[in-house]
Design a protein that fits this description.
By secondary structure, this protein is an all-alpha fold. It has a domain of 56 residues. The protein contains four helices and no strands. The longest helix has 18 residues.
């Protein structure tokens, strides 16, 4: 991504949203543009990082399926954890 070239993005927003954005930007000592670009960039990165794509060969995929379908090994620590009630259930 080039940091030297810039382009214009025009947005229409209800006044209440603009005021909210302006208040938040002011609290962080940023302009509306700086605040909105940072927020948009962070959200875009989050969306892109949430995409998981694994390229594997058919042989690798078959080996993966075998592992996923295999029974779990005994795990005492996991059994203890799963037998406890969650804090919100108490």
């Amino acid at each position: 991504m080039s940091t030297t070239a810039s382009s214009v993005i025009n947005l229409r927003t209800p006044a209440a949203q603009r005021e909210l954005i302006d208040r938040a930007a002011q609290l962080q000592g940023k302009s509306r543009t700086e605040f909105m670009l940072e927020a948009s960039r962070e959200k875009a990165q989050q969306v892109l990082l949430d995409q998981n794509l694994f390229n594997v060969t058919p042989k690798q995929f078959k080996a993966f399926l075998v592992l996923m379908d295999a029974p779990l090994a005994k795990n005492a620590a996991l059994q203890r954890l799963l037998s406890k009630r969650s804090p919100w259930e108490k």
